C-alpha cells in the first residue's frame, strides 16, 4: 500500500457564482499563483539517494543486484531518461505533476476500508462534563467554533502559514468543509460543495445511529449562537432516544468495493438518496456518542483513541458515523471527544489548525444570552431499509467487528521531557524522536526497517507530502553502537548527533521537493501511462522492501494537548503519531493483533526507554566546545 500519510484534492464541484469567482480570484488565488510549482528532481540524484536509502534495510547481496538494475535504468538514452522526460513534460503542463496521481493511487483507488487503514483520528483532552447537558453544551460551543473558522475560510482571511520563512499552499483548508468521499466500484471520488451555486448551510448530527440535518445559519445568514445550537441539539437528542434503528452509517466502514455496491443499492430509493445527499453536502458531521465503557485511567486514553478511529464496533458507536465525510467531530457523554477525518482531501496539519481554533473557542466565556427565537425542528433523515440493505448492514457489522478486534492501539504520554530537551542540545525534536524510534525498533527486532515519515510539500502549489526515510546509514550506525559495550560513550553520543543531523538533512531535502519516493512513484506511473513494459527496477524485491513501511510515522504538532492516531499501513507494521509539547510528548502507537510479531504496548515501552537512554547519553557526554 502507498503509505496513508498524504493524499490530494478533488476539484470543487458545481459552477462558481460570478461573485464567488471574483472573491476567489482575490487574496487566495493571488497567494496560490505566487507559489512555485513542484519540481521533478534530477534523475541521477534520486537514483543515488535510492541506493543510499536501501543500504540499512537490505543485504549486501541484494544491494549489488539492485545496483546493477539502477545502472541499467540510468544509462544515457535509456528507459529512465525517457520516463524522466515524460515527467518533465507533465510538470510543464500541470499545476502540480503529482497531485492528481497521488490522490488516485494513495486514496481513491485504495480499496481497503477507510476505517483504521486510511482515516486518522484525533484524541482531544477529556472534558469535565458528566452528563447530557454538558455534552450538548460543549458540542454546541464546538459547532460555533468550527463555524467561526469557516468564516475565515469563506472570507479568505485565514492567515497564510509559513515554513522556514516560505509561504505555504493553503488549498487544503478549502477542501475540508462541505466535502465527502463517494464510493465507486474501482475508484472513489471526492465531492466538494463549498464552492457550488448554493453552498450548504447545514451540518449533520448523528445520535443513536440516527442522522439529522441541522441548519446552523439564521435566515439573515448569520451563524446560530451556542444557545440556539444547544436547543436544537436537545431536540435531536429527545427525538432519537431509541437505538432500535438500523445503524446505516456502518455501511461506510466496509471494503470500498462492497460499500460501492451497497451504496448503489441504497440510493435507488428516493428517500434514501435525499438523506445520503444531505449527509454528503453538510458542512461537517457531529457525532453525539454513547459513553465508552468505564476503564482505568491508564487504558482510558488508548480506549478513546480506538473510539476516534473506529467507534468501538457495532455494539458501541461505529454506527454513529458516516466515515466518508471529510470531517466528523465526536463528543461522547462521558467527556471523551475528538474527531476522525477522511484523508483524501487533506493532511493532518490543516485539520489540527482548525481543531486548535475550535478548542480555544470552546474555552471562551459566553458574553450575551441569546434572545430565544423559535427555531424549526431539525430534519430527521429517513432511510427505507430493504432486506438487501439489511443484509449489507449485517455483513458490514461482521467485517467491522473483526477489524475492531484486530486493532491494537496504545496512547501514551511520555512525561519525562518534551521538545525543550532536544532543543537545549541544538537537536531537532523531530529528528530526536525519529532516531529514538529507530533505536526502539532495532532493540526489538535486531534490524532496521523501511520507515515512513510524512514531509509536507506545501511550499509548492497543491503540494501534499513526500516521505522522509528515517532509517539511514547513520541511524543504523548509532542503533548498532548504542548497546555495544565495546564502544565508548562519547563516540555513541557523536553517532547519535550525526544520525539526527542526517535526519534533519533528509527532511530539508524532502520539504524542498527533492526526496525520492514521489519521484520514483511518478516514474513508475509514467511507465504505466506510456505503456512501456514495467522497468526491472520496480519489479525488484528491494523496491518491494523499500515500500513496505513497518514503521509509518507522522509528527502532527498542535497547540492543543492532543494526539493524532492512525492504523499501520502494512500487516506486520506500526502506525506511530506524536505531538511534542514543551515538557512532554503525546504518542499514539498502533499495530494489528493478527500479527504475532508486533505489539503496540511493547513498542511504547521500548520507545520510552530509547528516549530516556538517549537523553542520558547526551547529558553525560556533552558536545566538546571547540
Account of the protein in words:
- The protein is of the alpha+beta class and 626 residues long.
- It has 2 domains: 38-93 and 415-620, 2-Layer Sandwich (Chloramphenicol Acetyltransferase), CATH 3.30.559; 119-406, 2-Layer Sandwich (Chloramphenicol Acetyltransferase).
- The chain is built from 21 helices and 18 strands.
- α3 (43-54) packs antiparallel against α4 (60-74), α7 (132-154) packs across α8 and α9 packs antiparallel against α13.
- It starts with 17 loop residues before the first helix and ends in a 6-residue tail after the last helix.
- The model is unreliable at 1-25 (pLDDT under 50).
List keywords for this structure.
626 residues, alpha+beta, Chloramphenicol Acetyltransferase, 2 domains, eight-stranded mixed sheet, six-stranded mixed sheet, 14% strand, disordered N terminus
Amino acid at each position: 500500500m502507498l503509505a496513508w500519510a498524504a493524499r490530494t484534492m478533488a476539484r470543487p464541484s458545481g459552477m462558481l457564482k460570478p461573485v464567488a469567482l471574483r472573491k476567489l480570484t482575490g487574496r487566495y488565488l493571488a497567494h496560490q499563483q505566487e507559489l512555485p510549482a513542484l519540481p521533478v528532481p534530477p534523475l541521477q540524484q534520486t537514483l543515488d539517494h535510492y541506493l543510499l536509502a536501501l543500504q540499512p534495510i537490505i543485504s549486501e547481496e541484494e544491494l549489488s543486484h539492485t545496483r546493477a538494475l539502477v545502472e541499467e535504468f540510468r544509462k544515457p538514452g535509456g528507459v529512465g531518461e525517457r520516463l524522466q522526460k515524460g515527467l518533465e513534460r507533465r510538470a510543464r503542463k500541470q499545476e502540480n505533476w503529482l497531485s492528481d496521481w497521488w490522490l488516485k493511487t494513495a486514496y481513491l483507488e485504495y480499496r481497503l476500508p477507510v476505517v483504521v487503514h486510511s482515516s486518522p483520528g484525533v484524541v482531544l483532552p477529556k472534558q469535565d462534563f458528566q452528563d447530557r447537558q454538558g455534552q450538548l453544551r460543549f458540542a454546541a460551543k464546538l459547532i460555533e467554533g468550527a463555524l467561526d473558522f469557516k468564516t475565515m475560510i469563506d472570507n479568505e482571511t485565514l492567515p497564510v502559514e509559513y515554513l522556514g520563512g516560505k509561504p505555504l499552499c493553503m488549498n487544503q483548508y478549502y477542501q475540508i468543509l462541505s466535502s465527502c468521499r463517494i464510493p465507486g466500484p474501482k475508484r472513489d471520488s471526492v465531492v466538494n460543495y463549498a464552492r457550488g451555486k448554493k453552498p450548504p448551510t447545514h451540518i449533520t448530527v448523528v445520535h443513536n445511529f440516527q442522522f439529522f440535518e441541522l441548519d446552523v445559519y439564521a435566515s439573515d445568514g448569520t451563524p446560530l449562537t451556542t444557545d440556539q445550537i444547544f436547543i436544537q441539539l436537545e431536540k435531536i437528542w429527545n427525538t432519537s432516544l431509541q437505538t432500535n434503528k438500523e445503524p446505516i452509517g456502518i455501511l461506510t466502514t466496509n471494503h470500498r468495493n462492497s460499500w460501492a455496491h451497497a451504496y448503489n443499492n441504497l440510493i435507488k430509493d428516493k428517500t434514501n438518496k435525499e438523506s445520503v445527499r444531505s449527509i454528503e453536502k453538510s458542512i461537517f458531521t457531529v457525532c453525539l456518542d454513547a459513553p465508552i465503557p468505564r476503564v482505568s485511567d491508564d487504558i482510558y486514553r488508548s480506549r478513546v483513541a480506538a473510539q476516534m478511529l473506529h467507534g468501538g464496533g457495532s455494539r458501541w458507536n461505529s454506527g454513529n458515523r458516516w466515515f466518508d465525510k471529510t470531517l466528523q467531530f465526536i463528543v461522547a457523554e462521558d467527556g471523551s471527544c475528538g474527531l476522525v477525518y477522511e484523508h483524501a482531501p487533506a493532511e493532518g496539519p490543516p485539520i489540527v489548525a482548525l481543531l486548535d481554533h475550535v478548542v480555544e473557542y470552546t474555552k471562551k466565556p459566553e458574553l450575551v444570552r441569546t434572545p430565544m427565537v423559535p427555531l424549526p425542528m431539525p430534519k430527521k433523515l429517513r432511510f427505507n431499509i430493504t432486506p438487501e440493505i439489511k443484509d449489507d448492514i449485517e455483513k458490514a457489522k461482521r467485517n467491522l467487528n473483526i477489524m475492531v478486534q484486530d486493532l491494537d492501539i496504545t496512547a501514551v504520554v511520555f512525561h519525562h521531557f518534551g521538545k525543550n530537551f532536544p532543543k537545549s542540545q541544538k537537536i531537532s525534536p523531530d529528528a530526536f524522536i525519529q532516531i529514538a524510534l529507530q533505536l526502539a525498533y532495532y532493540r526489538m527486532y535486531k534490524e532496521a526497517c523501511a520507515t515512513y515519515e510524512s514531509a509536507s510539500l506545501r511550499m509548492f502549489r497543491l503540494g501534499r507530502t513526500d516521505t522522509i526515510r528515517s532509517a539511514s546509514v547513520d541511524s543504523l550506525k548509532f542503533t548498532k553502537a548504542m548497546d555495544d559495550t565495546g564502544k565508548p560513550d562519547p563516540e555513541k553520543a557523536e553517532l547519535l548527533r550525526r544520525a539526527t543531523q542526517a535526519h534533519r538533512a533528509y527532511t530539508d531535502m524532502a520539504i524542498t521537493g527533492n526526496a525520492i519516493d514521489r519521484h520514483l512513484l511518478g516514474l513508475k506511473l509514467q511507465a504505466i501511462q506510456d505503456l512501456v513494459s514495467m522497468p526491472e527496477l520496480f519489479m525488484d524485491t528491494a523496491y518491494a522492501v523499500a515500500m513496505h513501511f513497518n514503521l509509518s510515522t507522522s509528527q502532527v504538532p498542535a497547540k492543543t494537548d492532543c494526539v493524532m492516531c492512525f492504523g499501520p499501513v502494512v500487516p506486520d507494521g506500526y502506525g506511530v503519531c506524536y505531538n511534542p509539547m514543551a515538557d512532554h510528548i503525546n504518542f499514539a502507537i498502533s499495530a494489528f493483533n493478527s500479527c504475532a510479531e508486533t505489539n503496540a504496548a511493547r513498542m511504547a515501552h521500548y520507545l520510552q526507554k530509547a528516549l530516556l537512554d538517549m537523553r542520558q547519553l547526551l547529558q553525560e557526554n556533552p558536545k566538546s566546545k571547540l
